[in-house]
From TrEMBL, chain A:
It is found in: Cytoplasm; Nucleus. Pfam families: F-box-like. The keyword Glycoprotein does not apply. GO terms for biological process: regulation of circadian rhythm; rhythmic process. Residues 1-31 are annotated as: Disordered. PANTHER family: ES1 PROTEIN HOMOLOG, MITOCHONDRIAL (PTHR10224), F-BOX AND LEUCINE RICH REPEAT PROTEIN 3 (PTHR10224:SF18). One of its GO terms (cellular component) is mitochondrion. Its main location: cytoplasm. The gene is FBXL3. Pathway: Protein modification; protein ubiquitination. Coiled coil: none annotated. InterPro entries: F-box-like_dom_sf, F-box_dom, LRR_dom_sf. This is F-box domain-containing protein. Transmembrane segments: none annotated.
TrEMBL record, chain B:
Residues 524-574 are annotated as: Disordered. It is found in: Cytoplasm; Nucleus. GO terms for cellular component: cytoplasm; nucleus. One of its GO terms (molecular function) is photoreceptor activity. Keywords: Biological rhythms, Chromophore, Cytoplasm, FAD, Flavoprotein, Nucleotide-binding, Nucleus, Photoreceptor protein, Receptor, Repressor, Sensory transduction, Transcription, Transcription regulation. The record marks W320, W374, W397 as: Electron transfer via tryptophanyl radical. This is Cryptochrome-1.
Amino acid sequence: MKRGLQGNEQEDGGGTSGGCQKTLKRSRKQRREKDLEDEEVRWECLPQEILLHVFQYLPLLDRAFASQVCRGWNEAFHMPELWRCFEFELNQPASSYLKATHPDLIKQIIKRHSDHLQYVSFKVDSSRESAEAACDILSQLVNCSLKTLGLISTARPSFMEMPKSHFISALTVVFVNSKSLSSLKIDDTPVDDPSLKVLVANNSDTLKLLKMSSCPHVSPAGILCVADQCHGLRELALNYHLLSDELLIALSSEKHVHLEHLRIDVVSENPGQQFHTIKKSSWDAMKRHSPKFNLVMYFYLYEDEFGPFFRDEIPVTHLYFGRSVSKDVLGRVGLNCPRLVELVVCANGLRPLDEELIRIAQRCTQLSAIGLGECEVSCSAFVEFVKMCGDRLTQLSIMEEVLVPDHRYGLDDIHWEVSKHLGRVWFPDMMPTW
Amino acid sequence: MVVNTIHWFRKGLRLHDNPSLKDSIQGSDTLRCIYILDPWFAGSSNVGINRWRFLLHCLEDLDASLRKLNSRLFVIRGQPTDVFPRLFKEWQINRLSYEYDSEPFGKERDAAIQKLANEAGVEVTVRISHTLYNLDKIIELNGNQPPLTYKRFQAVINRMDAVEMPAETITSEVLKNCVTPISEDHDEKFGVPSLEELGFETEGLTTAVWPGGETEALMRLERHLERKAWVANFERPRMNANSLLASPTGLSPYLRFGCLSCRLFYFKLTDLYRKVKKNHTPPLSLYGQLLWREFFYTTATNNPCFDKMDGNPICVQIPWDRNPEALAKWAEGRTGFPWIDAIMTQLRQEGWIHHLARHGVACFLTRGDLWISWEEGMKVFEELLLDADWSVNAGSWMWLSCSSFFQQFFHCYCPVGFGRRTDPNGDYIRRYLPILRGFPAKYIYDPWNAPDEVQKAAKCIIGVHYPKPMVNHAEASRINIERMKQIYQQLSCYRGLGMDASLLATVPANSNFGGNGTNPRAVCTVTNEGAGGSSKDPSVQVGMSQTERAQSVQKRRHEETPLESSSKSWKQSK
């Protein structure tokens, strides 16, 4: 390896790439000539910190190519700092269009870098093999002290299709060995109460984020255990059947930090399902303890299953109705959701929501985002709604078909009226017609 | 010198508003209008029987019209690059004309033919008449990028010069002394083939619901305008059960094949509007159908990867599921959801479905329920849908699957509810799925919920005579909206701690979606402060490398920065 000359490098004490620290004593003329001559060959003498910094900008493949250049660059490639985060992509050609992380790379990571890994996620496609491969890797991360773990199904939830015991034992390896888990995303997995106990036993001081929507094997008692012990929990996502008054009280206890984000999915398995109610006092306790928290609720219910909901005041901030929701329920939303910030309605049916929208504009004074899909609103009522909200509406996503022309406004001038009240150019969302 | 001309029909299958033909006739001694039956139809062999039948109708109609002018249509089999050198020689050609084709495949093919023509000393006349405008001018006016939102597109259109008037129809006056040498054996050598000759099984084939040809197109145009005048308000007609059925005034297949000139349609609409509304300026929404078509042509013209996800700079890289079995059920109308199955049945039988029906089935296939790639849906439409040409089909599928064009993904068309709200009685279902005729309106959209007695009375047991629903819609839409949110969150370089509350704000207003052909897979994600440590939670940055983020910032397009006179469009109504 040629030794180039670069003035600053001599001072650099951090570089560990082989043999460039020697100062060569030469005459000025010789040095200048050598400089010019060596113009092209200085690269391998770049100190490790700079290399590291540059490598961080490269995608993995390019970095891997760079690592083949020389021993110094190869060493830099394997510096722990470059292996703190990794996203394993596990796809099968039969079920995905995307490429997977190369198995050799996975082997290398497990061999050389498993104790460097701190922020890890697994993206799996809809095949069982991919989920199992993810768990196999997890089982081998014995030396890891993970801060973040994400198990993400990118299509159908394949973690649910593998043997539960295999999944649980792999997950337990991480829970037991990591001891400083801060963020955990395990939606759509067969995680259960006992494994949550293990999580809590080892990581109760550090856990800040837990995302576990649609984990059917967890019971309300299981999640309550987490809330009771993990006082640093700031963000939680789960399904409605896990929500209880006790849980909300636990999250509002004095020992608990302020909750920042609570996401609840309300999903109906079969038509006519019954849902329990949460007491208003529990929500009030939450509000007192964490006045600024976001309460995000996603509803996937049949129209006649909304009975228990929106009867009392509820501090919901973000509301999404993924199926058809009745006028009546939207009327109750206007009455009982004073903290509402975002409202998204997928479908309502062909009766105008004029009154309901006006009421929401009046009473939901924090509302800044609204999305309406398959609904109907008369143009006049819509203009009134926008006028009342004014420019606090930063997101106004209305499908064009929603607006019904009336005697005052047609479709061609409504966007002008609305733009006026919003203070910016606005058009409804359109879909191609051809 | 004798001037021998070939006019090459591809689209533009008409004699009205055919400027390239008209211009090349000037001073010609002979004219031969040809159609080349390229075994690889517009770059794909994926063409169903209805599409072929429509095309053959168009060619027969052209031939008939040309006969009235003492000319004929010459149908020639083969590839253009083989056919032309032969014809140039045989017929001593010195002039060639054709209508400009804006699609990337078309441009490539035409460049090759231009070269051959130059080598043979043949003068080439090309004119724009398949689109309202010169698409390159639209792109230029938008800072050398095609507009990627429809609103932006409309704003640019507002600033364009007026649409050019349609060219004079080809009549015997126009032809003057120009003759067509016709041989005795013309029908054998150059006649329009039949479906049987092309290898199709025609036994049991019902009459075409959509007959092809310029004559039919012009008749429909008149009817369409009559109907519009009747509905003097020019309001968008409310969607009802009837809208789902093929209309005798429907024009989209005729626009696609060029039997009807879009410019003629445009001017006739304008004239009618001015007459009825006493000279008011027509709003852009009047031309909705034409402008959507124009929009997709513009977006596609410089993008050869427009019909793919991989390597397509404007397409979001979504981890669609590969599932041929599920795809087949959808394509063949066996999903177990009567609304979806009826629509796909109508599509296969007739070749046309209402645009809201398209939205419904496209949503179901992609982001709504099956999570299958839009490319698969696009291919099925290509085979079956009469008005689906390359640009419009691919563009619409990307739009409907939320793969491009920056629109919100929250609205999901329910395969039960949407149909029920459109046609509460269920007549449309009964028409195309006769097996379900016995079901009452209450259960016809979700027959699996019907009690046994009802199913027995309807003589249709779900799971036996008609399939059970292939997915649980609530579950599927819950999962899928979460997937879309994940993807869009990464695109908007979301850096918050953990979860993002907002669903609406996740769609970026302006950025470049990955896929420059170098989709980095297995990317190692590193925090900004990898070496120095940071208090930021890097968990949410997983999935997007530094490079990708840097690139998307650099390539940020200022889609929403106002054009100088975009205010024009909203001052108009004052």
